[in-house]
Amino acid sequence: MSTVLSATEIMRRSLVTLSPSDDVHTSISRLLRDNISGAPVVDEDGRYLGVFSEKCSINALTEVIQSAREVGLHVVRVREFMTCDLVTLSQSMCVFDAIDHLLSRRISGAPVIDDEGRYAGIFSEKTAMRVLASALHDQLPGTNVGAYMNLDRNRIIDENDMLLEVAQKFQETPYRRLPVLYGDKLAGQVSRRDVLKAEHRLASEVHARAMQSPLAHLRAAATPRFVSEYMDCAALTASPTTDLLGITQMFLNSPYRRLPIVDNGKLLGQVSRRDLLNAAAGIMKPKKPRGRAETLYLSQLSAAAPPSLS
């Protein structure tokens, strides 16, 4: 298998970027509007400074969300914002077909269930990176999803968990999605994006009420914050000449989903896990019959969202 592709050949050059002086709330709105999980931060001369990600965003909103109860807002639980319409994979599906499904549906991972609908694990971009690394190193033939899925049961959450509890779990782990189970059956899923949307809506209401509060500490929670206070300045970067295998190893050994491509301090572009998988998919996939992914439709637990989520 060829590994001659470099960052320059697969990177995206047209990027959403942020300034360190941008308002945090407005920047989060932009991430959500543009449906992206993070953006590089650059100065006015195009010099790379760091990354403002979903994880940074959740961290920035924590203090504001903690004030929700004090200003009389409903405290949100998992069942009110989890996603129930899910793409699922089977354990027997070919990993290369599973990667195709992630790419074609533009999702970064999916739950894996057995024939009886029992939750088995997660197959994500990160686990797909392991497939890619094995293929690059060992010319791996096709194998199934069950051999690569993430089996960690500590990522499972309950429908009654609070928004802040789930946000904290995302802050403390590299996970981007947490399954919700009823017994051993998959009931739904909460992603970082789900949490960020719920927190952003709630934070907007907190800001509005806190500004009218006579309590100084509540008004302080509504004080404007800047991207520079929360951006990740230690995020990994790669050079334009870093090759496919080098980029794969960087993704495998870190929690990051994107690598800014930097040369002499200037941001040239960005390579995401999706970009890497797209570039490698045609090279590493063996010719064999396709498997199928299924969409699992699950009923919502509540008929309507609370006022803070409407």
Automatic annotation (TrEMBL):
Per its UniProt record, what CDD domains does this chain match? CBS_pair_SF
* Keyword set, alphabetical order: CBS domain
User: Ion transport as a keyword?
Assistant: no
Signal peptide from the UniProt entry: none
Q: Which residues form the CBS domain?
A: 11-67, 82-139, 149-205, 231-290
**Matches recorded under PROSITE patterns:** CBS
InterPro entries, per the entry: CBS_dom, CBS_dom_sf, Diverse_CBS-Domain
Keyword Flavoprotein among UniProt keywords: no
Identification of the protein by name: Inosine 5'-monophosphate dehydrogenase
The source organism is Rubripirellula lacrimiformis
